[in-house]
Q: What sequence folds into this?
């Protein structure tokens, strides 16, 4: 075929891609529906001009279109890795990890349920073998992620719900293709109907093998990319090679799922890339992948749609009945998940509550697309699949895809309007009015500055200022006087605005490199949790998210276990250093929020809401300072190292700004500027390296700061430091339960705890101890102890505590004071231990 003609056809397809997006926006239809419609029209037109006798002038073009090398391998090996890899790079993984249970259950369970439902329904309604029916079920069980995500963006769905659906749509591609590979093997080999247990037993092996290959390859790629820190194009090129190599490697080397391998590689790069690559390089890499995925997604839809006329050439009247069976079975299977499994997960608190209108929108928005057609094409191309099976698979998959695109896709906005999802709720309407009022205040300040800079005529300025001021006053008045908004909702709106400004401030600090790229994603995720917490739970949701941002997570607890049990200290050192940097970053951000409350929120929502937000902000600052003080006590000097690093990075940023300004003023040329920036990059690389945190040496220093151990000599302090175990507890965690046996004494290094006994409560803070009374009385504990702040505790076992008690007068004095508070004779407590000594 003429290369010029093929090039012309491909260039024309890109022209179609360029026209399709504005056309979809104008017609208010999903982008994928427009692409599919244009592809079908092109395919039908090519067949028409090739077979008509009206003219032969367009025959070469029609032959070039129909002769394009469109094979299933092109879809699966060229386009699919690009789409999957880019989708994983665009995810907010830290937020999705919060909802990994519903995402994984929906992705895997939904595909299995749809495959079985469609498969057994077809087996009942047709004469096809069960293996072929299950193969068709796997082919039609995967939804189109881009279509689903665009639906939720168009109806302004809650972010958490949109993330769950996006994650489910991505991962169900992997699960469906893995099942497709299983049943394709049964069909091709001509084996009898497969046992479900055999198929499902092989399913985890495909997933685990692909995940391991993807993770390992991505780790190696990130390591190599980090070596090329000053060669951005090389880094991007390596990232482009990564998904294709892992896909082919998984499929061809060990027979694992290439889709799973690509997803695992993308997730790994998403998690590790921002901390290892320069911020601008990471941003450019994601932009390149966004463009590649846009082209790949559009091309795969158009090329797959070109095949539809050919796939439907041999359709029979009886096939329409089977298409109806597939449609009903697929919709029923998705309804079981949405109206059965999702509410169950909500009851188990594993998934957020999904309101019924949203579930109906998800049900009707389950569009199928290019992946379904590509898998069907793979079946029709195989010479080892029976001819009748190939014909039925192609027709059923194509017919079902057309139904979802033409019927569901074109009526989706009507359904959304009927459900009322296109209308803002009262609180969202109030939020929009608040946004207008805040924006106009900012515009007024900017316009005032502009009039001064340009020295405009005073009369013009006065008249325009009055006109703009009237609009601003009306906007503020409307925002303040919304009768349908309760005071509780005003507080919620204020918290949403405060959290949004916090997120904007974080982005500014990241661009200025005040906050390192390593911590940027973490602090942004915490800000997103604050926004969603305020939207869903108001004041309590906001504070819950704030407490979570400084709590000791499960990863930290696991690192403590590894350090204590296996003497592996590197994970704990890394997470502790991360915690230091996170808390310092939060302190930097929180201290700037007060001005926003006074400057913006007070003007819109009034003094009462502003004062309440100041109170909540003060509580957040206090929690953060308490957590930071605990680390500072345990690791003295490390905060100072981080602060010095912050100053060095700030100085480098200011130095870079000065060089750029002087170059723009023409004081020196590009050669000098390039040399200065290279030198700056070298010094910045050194400043970006975080100082090493040595965990092993710090405990003795922490023990030395306890007043209770002031009378011990250096040798005694070192022995005690080795004997004490460190325990980290979150606010609300129960440390000692009533009626438990006494085995240890606890010393509070940082934070605070609350003791409750016989209906009375009292609090203990830094430098105090608890748990000693039960050991000395040799009785089961009658007191429950609960942390009321993130706390660091030092734990000493009973035997060592008794020996310490005999040598330390300070400890004996503390025991006496504690006993007198509870009405216990202190001499009786201490006499047994003194005699034993």
A:
């Amino acid at each position: 075929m003429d290369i010029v003609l093929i090039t012309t056809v491909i260039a024309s397809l890109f022209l179609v891609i360029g026209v399709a997006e504005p056309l979809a926006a104008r017609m208010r239809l999903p982008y994928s529906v427009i692409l599919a419609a244009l592809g079908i029209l092109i395919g039908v037109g090519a067949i028409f001009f090739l077979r008509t006798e009206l003219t032969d002038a367009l025959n070469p073009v029609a032959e070039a279109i129909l002769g394009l090398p469109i094979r299933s391998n092109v879809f699966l090996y060229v386009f699919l890795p690009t789409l999957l890899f880019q989708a994983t790079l665009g995810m907010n993984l830290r937020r999705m990890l919060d909802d990994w249970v519903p995402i994984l259950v929906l992705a895997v369970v939904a595909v299995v349920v749809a495959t079985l439902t469609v498969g057994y329904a077809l087996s009942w309604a047709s004469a096809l073998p069960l293996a072929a029916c299950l193969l068709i079920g796997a082919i039609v069980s995967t939804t189109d992620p881009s279509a689903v995500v665009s639906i939720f963006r168009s109806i302004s769905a809650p972010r958490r719900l949109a993330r769950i659906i996006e994650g489910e749509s991505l991962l169900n591609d992997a699960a469906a293709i893995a099942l497709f590979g299983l049943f394709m093997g049964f069909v091709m080999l001509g084996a009898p109907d497969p046992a479900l247990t055999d198929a499902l037993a092989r399913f985890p092996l495909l997933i685990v093998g692909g995940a391991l290959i993807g993770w390992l390859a991505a780790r190696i790629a990130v390591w190599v990319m980090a070596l090329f820190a000053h060669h951005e194009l090389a880094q991007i090129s390596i990232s482009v090679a990564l998904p294709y190599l892992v896909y082919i490697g998984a499929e061809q080397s060990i027979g694992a799922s290439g889709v799973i391998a690509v997803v695992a590689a993308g997730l790994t790069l998403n998690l590790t890339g921002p901390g290892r690559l320069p911020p601008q390089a990471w941003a450019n890499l994601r932009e390149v992948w966004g463009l590649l995925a846009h082209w790949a997604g559009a091309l795969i839809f158009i090329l797959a749609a070109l095949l539809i006329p050919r796939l439907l050439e041999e359709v029979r009247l009886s096939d329409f009945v089977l298409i109806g069976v597939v449609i009903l079975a697929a919709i029923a299977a998705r309804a079981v998940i949405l109206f059965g499994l999702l509410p169950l997960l909500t009851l188990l608190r594993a998934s957020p509550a999904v309101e019924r209108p949203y579930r109906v929108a998800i049900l009707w928005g389950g569009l199928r697309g290019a992946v379904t057609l590509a898998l069907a094409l793979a079946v029709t191309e195989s010479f080892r699949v029976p001819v009748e099976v190939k014909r039925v698979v192609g027709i059923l998959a194509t017919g079902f895809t057309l139904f979802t695109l033409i019927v569901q896709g074109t009526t989706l906005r009507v359904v959304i309007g009927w459900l009322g999802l296109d209308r803002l709720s009262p609180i969202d309407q109030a939020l929009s009015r608040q946004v207008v009022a805040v924006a106009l205040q900012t515009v007024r300040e900017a316009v005032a500055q502009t009039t001064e800079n340009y020295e405009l005529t005073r009369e013009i300025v006065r008249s325009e200022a009055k006109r703009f001021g009237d609009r601003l006053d009306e906007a503020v008045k409307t925002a303040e006087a919304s009768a349908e908004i309760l005071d509780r909702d005003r507080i919620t709106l204020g918290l949403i605005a405060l959290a949004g400004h916090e997120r904007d401030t974080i982005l500014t600090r990241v661009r200025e490199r005040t906050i390192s790229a390593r911590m940027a994603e973490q602090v942004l995720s915490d800000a997103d949790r604050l926004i969603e917490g305020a939207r869903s739970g108001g004041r309590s949701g906001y504070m819950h998210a704030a407490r979570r941002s400084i709590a000791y997570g499960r990863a930290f607890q696991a690192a403590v276990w590894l350090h204590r049990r296996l003497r592996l200290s590197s994970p704990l050192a890394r997470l502790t250093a991360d915690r230091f940097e996170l808390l310092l970053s939060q302190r930097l951000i929180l201290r700037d929020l007060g001005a926003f409350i006074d400057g913006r929120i007070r003007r819109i929502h009034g003094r009462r809401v502003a004062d309440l937000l100041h109170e909540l902000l003060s509580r957040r600052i206090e929690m953060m300072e308490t957590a930071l003080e605990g680390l500072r006590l345990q690791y003295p000097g490390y905060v100072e190292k981080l602060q010095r690093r912050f100053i060095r990075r700030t100085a480098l940023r200011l130095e870079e700004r000065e060089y750029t300004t002087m170059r723009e003023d023409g004081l020196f040329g590009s050669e000098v500027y390039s040399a200065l920036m290279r030198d700056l990059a070298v010094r910045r690389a050194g400043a970006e390296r975080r100082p090493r945190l040595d965990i092993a040496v710090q405990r003795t220093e922490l023990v030395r700061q306890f007043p209770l151990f002031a009378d011990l000599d250096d040798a005694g302090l070192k022995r005690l430091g080795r004997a004490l175990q460190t325990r980290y507890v979150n606010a609300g965690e129960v440390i000692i339960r009533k009626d438990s046996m006494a085995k240890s004494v606890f010393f509070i290094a940082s934070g605070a705890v609350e003791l409750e006994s016989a209906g009375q409560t009292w609090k203990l803070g830094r430098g105090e101890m608890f748990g000693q009374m039960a050991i000395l009385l040799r009785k089961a504990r009658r007191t429950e102890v609960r942390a009321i702040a993130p706390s660091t505790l030092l734990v000493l076992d009973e035997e060592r505590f008794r020996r310490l008690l005999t040598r330390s007068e300070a400890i004996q004095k503390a025991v006496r004071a504690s006993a007198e508070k509870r009405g216990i004779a202190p001499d009786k407590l201490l006499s047994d231990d003194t005699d034993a000594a």
